[in-house]
Amino acid sequence: CNNSNCVAYDKVCNMANDCGDHSDEEGCGNSFQCQTYKYYIPISKKCDGIIDCHDTSDECNSECGREIIAGTVLKFLAWTLGGTSVCLNSILIWKSGNELGNGNKSARINRGVKLMICIGDLFTGLYLLTIATVDRIFGVEYCKGQLTWLTSSHCAALGIISMFGATVSILSMTYLSFFRVYSIRHGRIEIVQNLILKNNLCIGVIMLCSFLIAYIPLIDSFENFFVNGVTYDKNLRLFTSIANKEKHLDVINSYFGKIKERLFTWKTINMLIDLMFSNDYGELKKKKVHFYGNEGVCLFKYFVKNSDPQLKFVWMTLTIKASCFLCITFCYSLINIGSKRINRKVSKMMARGPNANLHDKRNKRLQRNITLIITYYRFSLLDSSYFDQFFAFFRGSRCHIPLCLLINCNSFCKFGYQPTSL
Predict the structure, then answer these.
(1) Residue of 166, 84, 209 lying closest to 382 (CA atoms)
(2) How far is 302 from 321, CA to CA, in rounded Å?
(3) Model pTM?
(4) How far is it between the farthest Cα atoms of the chain?
(5) Which phi and psi (to 5°) does residue 42 adopt?
(6) Residues 354-407: pLDDT tens digits?
């Protein structure tokens, strides 16, 4: 050793300061030394996206320090798509609101539901614009403030906004599809009693369900199904970064003895951890990492592992979205088939009339509009959830950022082509 001490050769490069002056670990390629507390971690844990050093030096350094949105192109797209989406949807909401009371009952219901879709997309645009602003505020310092951001109420609010907006849009699209099929098959829908009241009740149910799906993961009563972990004060060196249930289980079993895992709830964890420490120096500071705190972009946690407590809820949500997509496709396929049959009958009746060519042109335009409607809804249902499931096999933590830009594409599609009631 440089201080003239001697150690066994097998203690060189073993990630422990056996010499007392760290000289036995100098030049070793298998370890990384944390800056503040000078202890060692395996080199494979450097820049792996998980904080292992209490001072975050293994992740927050010149080699691997990261931002919420990485790259100039993605930052530009986030600002552009988010800002433009908010502007376009605001225009559509204003136009739909002014025309809401015009026309018959069917036309008013169509406009009202399309207004709901625009509101959902507006929330999604506000989310993207806000996350771009947060990225601008944190900048390259995000790595150091990552745990503070992920456990904050602001991140939770962003998660609610993004999920609420996406759910309102897809449920409204599904309801509009069913309503249009019902209108075509039954014809005189204007004679249905209390039609507007029933429609308003359906819209209320859509709003309530969307809010519950977005907010349920943050309710304390369900923390065992959604909390990803707990962060502690930096001075508490027992845990680094985010401590999940497995890390708590190891520490608590070592201190209290074996505890049955089925009894291991977050309420029990908090009680046992509090018992391990004295209150002479104040209350132990800890914060829960909520459901939306899984990534810096604060999105719904679509990509889950088999060990994640929210697995069933996530797959239930994905199933609902997939079912809505299939229903929308099925409904407009029925509309397409039905309109073709009607057009063939009418064409035969008018084949020898003076307006035959004009009628053929109107039929082709109608079929083209229906095809555009189906294409529009398929495109507008693009969601980062399904892409995450695929891309996460390669790099799960980074695919959220570019893919979250896709959720605003439907705003441009909708603004460029507004499907009217058939």
Answers:
(1) 166
(2) 12
(3) 0.77
(4) 110
(5) -60, 145
(6) 555 665 666 666 656 656 655 655 555 544 444 444 433 333 344 444 445 555
